[in-house]
């Protein structure tokens, strides 16, 4: 099976990757790091890439996903695959998890309440509410 880690290139993404790596090792599963960019960001990156004099190898999605995984090799000791998608992040992560029949989806979230009650970001909340797959959520306090 596959462990899917939803990453964004944030500092918390490295914690998500570390947790997903532990799960992949424990279950002897594949690890897939999924980075989704919104349509508007995709358009901006396509324009930037077409204006660049050097030709990048790979698609915009692959290049964006690769940039979001900077430093992963220092954390991950399992084999992993980098996956780039364009569109609504929660929808695309869940579509991919279904496509590969993921054992777990690992995501990050934020604790926003002053009393410590965890309220997740919209992407994390949408993932939690729209899947029957087990979701491991790591929270970060502001």
TrEMBL record:
Residues 3-136 form the UspA domain. Residues 47-66 are annotated as: Disordered. It holds the Pfam family Usp. Residues 47-56 have a biased composition (Basic and acidic residues). SUPFAM superfamilies: Adenine nucleotide alpha hydrolases-like (SSF52402). InterPro entries: Rossmann-like_a/b/a_fold (IPR014729), UspA (IPR006016). Belongs to the universal stress protein A family. This is Universal stress protein.
